[in-house]
Each structure stands twice: as C-alpha cells, then as structure tokens.
C-alpha cells in the first residue's frame, strides 16, 4: 500500500511539528483512519516534499512530525495547454484532472471566437488540480491561469514554441514530429474549431500548425491526446 500524500501550501522547510489543515486533518483521521505513528508524505505543490509521522490524530487538528525534506527538480521542459471552454463543465474538469496526472505544467482556459460558454470555477478547478497531483504522486501543482482571449494570448511574450491544433485544410505537422525538448504552449480550439482568421493570426505570430490525427476529436479529447504526445519524450 502506498503512503498517503497530502498537499499543504504553507509547508515549512524544516524538521519539527506541523499541524495539517482542517481539510487534510479530516481526510487523514476520518477517511483514511490514520493514527499515531502512521507515516504520510507531504508537498507544498512547488517541489518541496517531506515525510511526516502522525503524532496526534483528530478530524480538526492532526499533528505530524516532519523530516526527510527534499526539493524535487522542476520538470523540464514545461508544457502549457490553452484549451477553449466547452459546453459541458464536467468535461472540462475531466480534462484538467487527466492532463494534470499526465504532467502538464499549466493551463489557460481559452476564449476563442467560437467558444460558446464560459464557466470558470477557479476554487473548484484548483481543488481538482491538487487532487490529481496527489493521485499521481507529483510534487508540482500545475498553474491555473485566468481565462484569456485568443488574440491576447498569442501576443503575450513566451519562452518556447507556440503550437496550434486545428482541423482546417492546410499544411500541418504531426505533433509527434515537432521538437518536444523545449517549452511549449499548445492551443486547442472550441467544438467549432478555430476560425480561419484565428489560424492566420496565429501563423503570423509564429505558431506552428499541428495535427492530432485523422479523426475529429472533442475539445477535451484533443487536449488529452496533445498532453500525452507532448509528455512522451
């Protein structure tokens, strides 16, 4: 059985006693039924990881003894996916969960010309990212950016390559064939795809046009396919 993993944003970088948040305390004592002497792992979501031994267990105040600190090296390169909002909020949440497990470093909820609905639930989505990070035993929580318009995003300064996936005719590279050793910002459009004007504007901004295969994918499916291909290096 794997050692339970907990997220504590205010985790101190030193040995000593530490009180878990009320949410973590409740999960630890009531859900996992952990008791004095049991071991856990903790991370601050910024690469700091340590071991903890439960000193006292209570649903509102669980205290642990911290030790064995380690600063995990940040994954390199960093992959960011900007993905259009979709009609079904649950599908967007599914994408965020699975892409986090795969190892995507950050996300932009994207507002394109054909985006039909926006439903940004920052607190809920952040919770999904934390849960997926812990589930996949990672120590870096992805960055969730605020929603951004397509035209604004492609004009922002960037450190790495810009890729755009679309279904319109024209010259495109298979995602498997692009350089995956550099930081990447990949744009996934809405269910109606990017408009020709958006595709043209992205090309003028230095974007490489890419294909995710021969079938037409849902927005969230395209996001997962892109995440897998980007992280498989």
Can you give me a brief rundown of this structure?
The protein is built from six helices and 13 strands. It is an alpha/beta fold and 233 residues long.
Q: Mind explaining what this structure looks like?
A:
With 233 residues, the chain is of the alpha/beta class. The protein has 2 domains: 5-71, Ribosomal Protein L25, Chain P, CATH 2.40.240; 79-231, SPOUT methyltransferase, trefoil knot domain (Alpha/beta knot), CATH 3.40.1280.10. It has 6 helices and 13 strands. The strands form 2 sheets. Strands 6, 7, 8, 9, 10, 11, 12 and 13 form an 8-stranded parallel sheet that branches. The longest helix has 14 residues, at 89-102. The model has no long low-confidence stretch (mean pLDDT 94).
Largest sheet: 8 strands, parallel
Which radius of gyration do the C-alpha atoms yield?
20 Å
Secondary-structure element order, as H and E? EEHEEEEHEHEEHEEEHEH
Q: Give average pLDDT, whole number.
A: 94
CATH architecture of the largest domain: 3-Layer(aba) Sandwich
Count of the separate structural domains: 2
Q: State the CATH topology of the largest domain.
A: Alpha/beta knot
**Overall 3D geometry?**
elongated
Distance between the termini: 29 Å
Q: Please report the total strand number as a whole number.
A: 13
Number of helices, where a helix is a run of at least 4 consecutive DSSP H or I residues? 6
Strand content: 25-35%
Helical residues, percent: 25-40%
């Amino acid at each position: 059985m794997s050692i339970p993993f907990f997220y504590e944003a205010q985790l101190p970088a030193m040995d000593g006693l530490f009180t878990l948040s009320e949410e973590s305390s409740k999960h630890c004592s009531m859900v996992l039924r952990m008791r004095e002497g049991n071991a856990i792992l903790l991370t601050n979501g910024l690469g700091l990881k340590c071991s903890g031994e439960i000193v006292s267990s209570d649903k509102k105040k669980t205290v642990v003894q911290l030790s064995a600190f380690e600063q995990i090296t940040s994954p390199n390169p960093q992959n960011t996916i900007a993905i259009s909002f979709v009609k079904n909020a649950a599908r967007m949440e599914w994408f965020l969960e699975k892409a986090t497990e795969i190892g995507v470093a950050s996300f932009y909820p994207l507002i394109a010309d054909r985006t039909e609905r926006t439903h940004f639930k920052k607190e809920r989505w952040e919770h999904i990212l934390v849960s997926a990070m812990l589930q996949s035993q990672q120590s870096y929580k992805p960055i969730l950016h605020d929603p951004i318009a397509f035209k604004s995003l492609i004009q922002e300064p960037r450190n790495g390559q810009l890729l755009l996936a679309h279904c319109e005719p024209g010259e495109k590279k298979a995602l498997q064939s692009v350089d995956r050793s550099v930081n990447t910002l990949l744009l996934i459009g809405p269910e109606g795809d990017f408009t020709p004007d958006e595709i043209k504007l992205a090309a003028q901004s230095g974007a490489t046009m890419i294909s995710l295969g021969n079938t037409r994918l849902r927005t969230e499916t395209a996001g997962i396919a892109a995440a897998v291909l980007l992280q498989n290096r």
